[in-house]
Design a protein that fits this description.
3 domains; alpha/beta; binds S-adenosylmethionine; seven-stranded mixed beta sheet
């Protein structure tokens, strides 16, 4: 997925913009009024240059152009593949600020950031908030080669052995568990908040990449170690050393850091229904509840290991007791509103009621609970204008064609 992101506005003479326009045909640019700004976007060879004219001021700002690539992720429910489509349905709405209530990998937050919005990021899970800090809040800090080398130099006399002991033969090999104990100790000590966030985010992505199915809901290390024929997964990536994967993801995260001149921030780990507001538009991408299932997607079950890494010091106290096979993390009660069948419809209603004063944009799938019709009914109860867009798609290895939905309610 490629975007054009813009950083560090530079004042550019109006005459230059006019000259450039003379060389373009009408198809090469568009002018858009966006609140107080007039935005002129020029398309050149697939890239864009954006000039902004702030009303009342004569200067145009040339926003530096660089090709943007959202860092890769194997996170369940990530909207990364739908970003262009989502934006094509939102680009004509006037709004300055947005709250991404179920932020996850921050892919949609980044989409809004790229388009010059003030972005507030929220997610119940701490490891996701760290990713939000690295990508949404961070304006300019990157992890240099020297920073990375320092963080990967394990020169303390002793290191904790929590993962080695507690997670033996569950998710990773012994030497990998020992490496994780050292890496998380070093990364957590990095003083700069944004460098730390990039390093930790890269570590989380590396952990996902080395897991069969990219999840932590089963103690299934044997899938990696058994000598059997497989027609799924990526054995080469599973066996790649953590260190290599972390370096790769740090480089990806570094490339995604930019400033859109707005005060973007991670507001925290609020339960969606209690999330502070104060923005024009809310984007809702709640956990998915498939109609063919008895449980909604439980992100704590899926990713408790990453949540443990994000809370490394407290991890021993947060483990379930009695302990499950996967050594699950103690789950906050808020998660159950989204995973229990008898509560899910009421939770959706509460969510929409909570944000009834905002422009609401909601992502969901057509074969879920509640159904498309039920969601439309609830939105229409609170909002005058409601539209729904849909896009069919297919996951790799799945024969089923899915329909992604985007509700826009004003
Ligand atoms: C479908 S995912 C969002 C994916 C995200 N839009 C992306 O592109 O990566 C749902 C997210 O909701 C979060 N979540 C689950 N229950 C929550 C709650 N009660 N309040 C806030 N966030 C919650 C999960 O941690 C998960 O990241």
């Amino acid at each position: 997925m490629r975007f054009n992101a813009f950083a560090h506005p530079v004042i550019y003479p109006k005459s230059r913009v006019k000259n450039l326009l003379k060389t373009c045909s009408k198809h090469d640019y568009f002018l858009q009024k966006d609140g107080r700004r007039i935005v002129l976007e020029l398309h050149t060879e697939g890239n864009s240059r954006v000039y902004q004219k702030v009303k009342g001021k004569e200067s145009f700002f040339l926003m530096e152009r660089h090709t943007f690539r959202y860092p890769s992720t194997r996170y369940s429910g990530s909207k990364r593949r739908f970003l262009d489509w989502i934006w094509s349905n939102l680009k004509d709405i006037r709004f300055q600020s947005v709250l991404d209530v179920f932020g996850g990998t921050a892919s949609v937050s980044l989409l809004f950031k790229i388009h010059g919005k003030e972005v507030h990021y929220n997610d119940l899970l701490k490891f996701n908030q760290i990713i939000g800090t690295a990508l949404v809040e961070n304006k300019k800090t990157i992890v240099t080669a020297a920073d990375l080398k320092n963080a990967l130099t394990f020169d303390r006399k002793t290191y904790p052995e929590f993962i080695q002991k507690e997670f033996k033969s569950i998710f990773y090999l012994d030497n990998e568990n020992a490496w994780l104990d050292k890496a998380i100790t070093e990364f957590s000590q990095v003083r700069d908040k944004y460098k730390r966030a990039i390093l930790l985010s890269a570590l989380f992505q590396a952990c996902l990449a080395k897991r069969p199915f990219n999840l932590f809901h089963r103690a299934n290390l044997y899938i990696r170690t058994n000598n059997v024929h497989r027609n799924f997964g990526n054995k080469t990536t599973w066996e790649r050393p953590f260190e290599n994967l972390v370096s790769r993801y740090v480089s990806e995260y570094n490339k995604s850091v930019f400033d859109n001149s707005k005060k973007n921030r991670v507001i925290g780990g609020y339960n969606a229904l209690d999330c502070p507001n104060g923005v024009d538009l809310v984007y809702l991408d709640p956990p998915y509840f498939s109609a063919s299932s008895n449980q909604g997607a439980n992100y704590f079950t899926f990713y408790h290991f990453l949540e443990g890494l994000a809370n490394y010091d407290k991890w021993p106290r947060l483990l379930y007791s009695p302990r499950s096979k996967t050594k699950k993390f103690h789950e906050p009660s808020e998660i159950y509103e989204w995973v229990q069948k008898d509560r899910i419809c009421e939770t959706f209603e509460k969510l929409i009621a909570r944000f009834q004063d905002n422009i609401i944009v909601l992502s969901y799938q057509s074969d879920g609970i509640p159904s498309k019709e039920e969601i439309l009914l609830t939105l229409k109860h609170f909002k005058k204008k409601v539209k729904v867009f849909s896009k069919t798609h297919q996951y790799v290895l799945s024969p089923k064609v899915k329909e992604e939905l985007l509700f826009v309610a004003k």
